[in-house]
């Protein structure tokens, strides 16, 4: 089973964390967001309080994407599963959110992508990324196969970016240099708004919650 929490009332907003984290990463955002939204936060499989199967076949990008789709559909108003949600994701969570906007655009009202990149079109770059995810899993004391949820078997997001019509906000930390190029690319391709938070690193939403919340609130207010 996948662990999820839902608080607040209003339009649906789904929060997806990155590798090695859990839904607790959103502690600085949920109280503010729940004032105007029905906020669903969840733990990816192998993380937090979600199930942790020992079979490596249970961990892949496509299965994680299926999990996100199920979370979004179940978070909607009963009887209207296709009601679109705002998807807010950090790192891998943002990548999966883009992937869902490509594969199931009817489910996605808008995107808030924090420290997120679009992946790689070059196979060698993807292999390097995948190996890095294995090492990252180990640094979080997770079995290496759990990193399969972050593995990129293809260029799904890169190739589908231009089909994303959902309004998009990008947030990145000033010191998170690894993601500056990807965010700049997404800004151009998605005609997105980009906010760079001064002094912040990769966990910008945790360390600079107030600045992130102000940017998110201004963006969500503009959707009304």
Kindly describe this structure.
The protein is an alpha/beta fold and 224 residues long. It starts with a strand and ends with a helix. The model has no long low-confidence stretch (mean pLDDT 95). The protein contains 8 helices and 7 strands, in the order ββαβαβαβααβαβαα. It has one domain (4-214): Rossmann fold (3-Layer(aba) Sandwich).
Quick one: CATH class? Alpha Beta
> Kindly state the mean pLDDT as a whole number?
95
The succession of helices and strands, N to C, reads EEHEHEHEHHEHEHH
CATH architecture term: 3-Layer(aba) Sandwich
The count of β-strands is: 7
Number of domains: 1
Number of helices: 8
Low-confidence stretches: none
Strand content: 15-25%
Could you say which structural class the secondary elements and strand pairing correspond to? alpha/beta
Trace the largest sheet across and list its strands. 1-3-2-4-5-6-7
Q: From the alpha-carbon coordinates, what is the Rg to the nearest angstrom?
A: 16 Å
């Amino acid at each position: 089973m996948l662990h999820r929490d839902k608080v607040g009332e209003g339009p649906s907003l789904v929060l997806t964390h990155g590798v090695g984290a859990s839904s607790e990463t959103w502690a600085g955002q949920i109280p503010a967001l729940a004032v105007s939204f029905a906020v669903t936060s969840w733990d990816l499989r192998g993380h937090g309080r979600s199930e942790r199967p020992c079979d490596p076949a249970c961990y892949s990008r496509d299965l994680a994407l299926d999990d996100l789709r199920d979370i979004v559909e179940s978070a909607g108003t009963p009887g209207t599963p296709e009601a679109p949600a705002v998807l807010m994701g950090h790192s891998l969570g943002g990548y999966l959110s883009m992937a869902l906007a490509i594969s199931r655009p009817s489910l996605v009202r808008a995107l808030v992508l924090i420290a997120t990149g679009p992946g790689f079109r070059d196979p060698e770059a993807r292999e390097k990324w995948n190996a890095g995810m294995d090492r990252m899993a180990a640094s979080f004391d997770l079995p290496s196969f759990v990193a399969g949820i972050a593995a990129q078997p293809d260029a799904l997001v890169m190739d589908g970016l231009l089909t994303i019509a959902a309004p998009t906000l990008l947030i990145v930390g000033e010191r998170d240099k690894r993601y500056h190029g990807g965010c700049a690319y997404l800004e151009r391709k998605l005609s997105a708004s980009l906010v760079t938070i001064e002094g912040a690193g990769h966990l910008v939403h945790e360390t600079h919650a107030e600045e992130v919340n102000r940017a998110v609130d201004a963006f969500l207010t503009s959707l009304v």
